[in-house]
Design brief:
- Strand 1 and strand 2 form a beta hairpin.
- By secondary structure, the chain is mainly alpha-helical.
- The longest helix is centred in the C-terminal third of the chain and has 107 residues.
- Helix 5 runs parallel beside helix 7.
Amino acid sequence: MGAATREKKPRMILFDAVERGSIDDFDAALVAGRIDETRDGEDVLMFAARRRDEEMVKHLLRRGANSRFCNSNGDTALHLACLNGQTTVVEDLLAHGADMEARGAQANRPIHLACAGGFEDVVGALVLRGCVLSAQNANGALPSTLCSNLEIKALVSDIEREGESARERFRVKTASRLAADAARAREEERRALEECARERREEEEKRAERERIQVEEHQRVLDENEALRRTLEEIEAKERERALLEEKKRAKKTKSTAGKKKGAVATKKKT
């Protein structure tokens, strides 16, 4: 049993890491395991797609996960992404070679599931990649038959009826829409940058105004201190001048008193 546990552990760690959504743990576990490990008939890529973990799916594809792996029903990670309406995951899987025409449970192809779910962007991604729209599932249903979304139904029905010319019109329309979206995004970015620049200018002007006020306040304090210093100097000068006058008066008075005493003594001697 111990040997069986050791043999099972790397696989379990891989799936546990995907379940936690931890890319670091998955990379650490991959050292001892293989990316094509399966559990309950699914590989880690299908497991991540079922959990709707876009970042993990992207990482697994970068690490070499097989985008065409299917379970016993024939379902792939692309089937699950279309079932869940995950446009980003669908595009990533297609970019890594996922099979758009793989037949899953009830012979449904990914386009059947996307149409049934009413996922317009997912259907658009498959249509632009050239998926077959004339394929029937096990119940004989075409993708258009399963459409609940009227816009999707119109698109798919037009391509079923007119062929590639309708698909090409859709490509042109999509390209125009994407170009318009890109132009709008650039305009929004430009406005955002202008707004950011305006806010920066306003903040700089406010900061400059604050600094100006601080400088003026500092200068005012210096001027007041200087005026106070001069006032004190004037007071001290006047005080020194007053003291000097008082000293002169005292000296004059002393001299006068001494002269009188001297005269009185001389008069007394004559007598």
